[in-house]
Design brief:
Helix 4 packs across helix 7. The chain is an all-alpha fold and about 290 residues long. It is about 80% helix and about 0% strand. It is built from 13 helices and two strands, in the order ααββααααααααααα. It starts with a helix and ends with a helix. The chain has a two-stranded antiparallel ribbon.
């Protein structure tokens, strides 16, 4: 009996330690990013840093305005959401409630394989396939907002599909059966009852998808054009906050390096805001 209690308390301690490591890791990341970036923002000027439209760190009088990168990140992420979220949710509904078993045996492993493909491979795919198509359709180099949005829309599909399907399958069968018993069709029961019951899980899937889209770097570097400017159309190239950090961190020093760390602070705040907003929506059941 004592041995049994020992193992129970031991495993309880392991679980608590595991959970504590996750929390401590977030706190440490939070501290080191903000400790390195906030002093620069206060010294340079928060308004000047956030709303400045010129990024010229190598000039004799360097300027560190990251508004073009903020706009680029937001525009590309919104484009990815418009493309990826409806496609992912509808695909998950099909897989959970409409897909024939023979097709499901092929489709499910294919979706899982998409999640395992490295980001750089997606980037090369877009560079060889999507960029030439965009170049022939809209002109220019083909490296623009539309190309990056299409690429990120594809990349978020495995996350959204996987979590949304799991949420749909977790809905009790009695919900669907009760709707059908009241005279509703199969399609209406699925869309009006099952999907609404799985709304919480679907929103969580969208949160993770948005997080991946706004934080993606390597694939976006290859197709976004990487031009630090505020775009006037969807066919122009842009630079996101993540790509700005990766492209310049290798040779940055002094104030330039601090500006890049401050950019990471802004990106971190964006993620917190997105998660907080979706959590409020999820809690209120909007």
């Amino acid at each position: 009996m004592q041995k049994k209690y020992f193992w129970e308390h031991f495993m309880k301690g392991i679980f608590i330690a595991s959970a504590s490591i996750s929390v401590i890791s977030i706190i440490v990341i939070f501290y080191f990013i903000f400790e390195g970036g906030v002093p620069f923002m206060l010294d340079y000027g928060i308004g000047k840093f956030l709303f400045g439209s010129v990024w010229t760190p190598s000039n004799s009088t360097p300027q560190y305005g990251i508004l073009p990168m903020i706009v680029g990140s937001i525009v590309i992420t919104v484009g990815a959401i418009i493309i990826g979220v409806p496609t992912g949710v509808f695909t998950s509904v099909f897989m959970a409630r409409f897909c024939p078993p023979k097709l499901y045996k092929f489709l499910k492993p294919a979706i899982n394989m998409m999640a395992a493909i490295p980001s750089i491979v997606y980037g090369f795919f877009a560079l060889r396939v999507v960029v030439p198509l965009m170049k022939s359709w809209v002109g220019g180099t083909g490296m623009n907002i539309l190309t990056a949005s299409i690429l990120l829309g594809i990349m978020v599909l495995p996350t959204i599909i996987g979590m949304s399907e799991a949420s749909l399958r977790a809905v009790p069968k009695s919900y669907y059966e009760g709707s059908v018993a009241l005279g509703a069709t199969h399609e209406r029961s699925v869309l009006r009852v099952v999907v609404l019951a799985a709304k919480s899980g679907i929103i969580s899937a969208v949160i993770l998808g948005v997080g991946r889209a706004i934080g993606e770097t390597m694939a976006v570097i290859l197709v976004a054009g990487n031009q630090p400017r505020i775009p006037s159309s969807l066919t122009q190239g842009v630079r996101t906050m993540t790509t700005n950090i990766v492209l310049e961190m290798a040779y940055a020093a002094g104030q330039h390096r601090e500006a890049l760390i401050a950019t990471a602070v802004v990106l971190f705040i964006f993620i917190i805001i997105i998660n907080g907003a979706f959590s409020i929506v999820k809690r209120k059941g909007i």
